[in-house]
Amino acid sequence: METLTNQNQNLSADNEEDIDLQELLGALVEEKWLIAIITTIVFVVSIFYAFVATPIYRADTILQVEDKSNSMLSLGDLADFSANSPTSAEIEIIKSRKIIGKTVDKLNLDIQVSPNYFPIIGAAIARKNNDKNITKDSAYMGYAYGGERIKIEQLTLSRHLEKEEVTLITQKNQSYKLIDENDKLLLTGKVGELVQKNGVSIFISELTARIDTEFSLSKSNHTKVVVGLKKMINVAERGKKTGILSISLEGADPVLISRIVDNIANLYLRQNIERTSVEAERSLIFLQKQIPLIKDEMEAAEVELNNYRGNKSSVNLTLETQSLLNRIITIETQLAGLEVKRSDLSKKYTDIHPIMVTLSSQENKLKEQLERINTKAHHLPETQQEILRLSRDVEVATTIYTQLLNKSQELKVVKAGTVGNVRIIDSALTAQDPVKPKKLLIILISTLLGLFMGAAWVLVRHAMNKNIKDPELIEKHTGISFYANIPLSVTQELLNKDKAASRNKNAILCEHNPKDLSIEGLRSLRTNLHFALLEAKNNIVMITGPAPGVGKSFVSTNFAHLVAQSGKKVLLIDADMRKGHINREYGLERSQGLSELLAGSIDRHTAVHNSVFDNIDILTTGSFPPNPSELLMHKNFEKNLNEFSKAYDLVLIDTPPLLAVTDAVIIGRLCGATFLLLRYDAHSMAEIREALKRLKQNNVTPRGFIFNGVELHKGYGKYGNYHYEY
Question: What is the predicted pLDDT for the residue at 278?
Answer without folding.
Answer: 62
